[in-house]
Amino acid sequence: MMTQSAHYTGRRQSWLRPAWTPATIGLMVLGFIIAWPLGLAMLAYIIWGDRLDDVKHDFRRSFGRFKREMDMKGFNTADRGTGNVAFDEFRKAEIERLEAERRKLDEMVDEFDAHLRNLRRAKDQAEFDEFLKSRHNHNGDHPVSDNGTGPNPAPAT
Q1: Which one is predicted more confidently, 131 or 71?
Q2: Within its chain, how far is the Cα of 152 from the centroid?
Q3: Rg (CA), the chain
């Protein structure tokens, strides 16, 4: 059963979520009573907790890149040879090929993230332009310029 205000992912909402709910406010107050760092941690969770998934994703991606770089520099114990020169050469060539593919995929992920940032920026700009148009229609104080970049300066009196 889903609540009406369920998050867009379709998951059920938890009683402990990063929002100003009675449960989180109560835990924050209780945390301040017991020890102020606990209350401060709960306050931070309420304010910034919705960003934790992005932070975890970024950390995993960065750690994965770091681990791969360390592996390529020879810090991986699995890079020891098997004793069969032909197999070791084949294995090394395949690992290099896979690393090249992984680098391409990492570049594609970075390009996609940049694309999403640009889409969000364009959406924000469109919403702002719509706000300016609606504001102009309501009070007529600040007409919107023809290029849609914002209000025209008021004429000097």
Answers
A1: 131
A2: 35
A3: 26
Asked if residue 104 lies in contact with residue 97, where contact means CB atoms within 8 angstroms, the answer is no
User: C-alpha angle 95/100/102, rounded to 5°?
Assistant: 90
Return the number of other C-beta atoms located less than 10 Å from residue 64's C-beta: 12
Write the pLDDT tens digit of every residue in 98-155: 999 999 999 999 999 999 999 999 999 999 999 999 988 877 655 555 555 555 555 5
3-state secondary structure the chain: CCCCCCCCCCCCCCCCCCCCCHHHHHHHHHHHHHCHHHHHHHHHHHHHHHHHHHHHHHHHHHHHHHHHHHHHCCCCHHHCCCCCHHHHHHHHHHHHHHHHHHHHHHHHHHHHHHHHHHHHHHHHHHHHHHHHHHHHHHHCCCCECCCCCCECCCCCC
pLDDT tens for residues 21-48? 888 888 889 989 998 888 888 888 888 7
Contact, 49 vs 13, CB < 8 A?
no
Q: Which two tokens stand for residue 156?
A: 């000097």
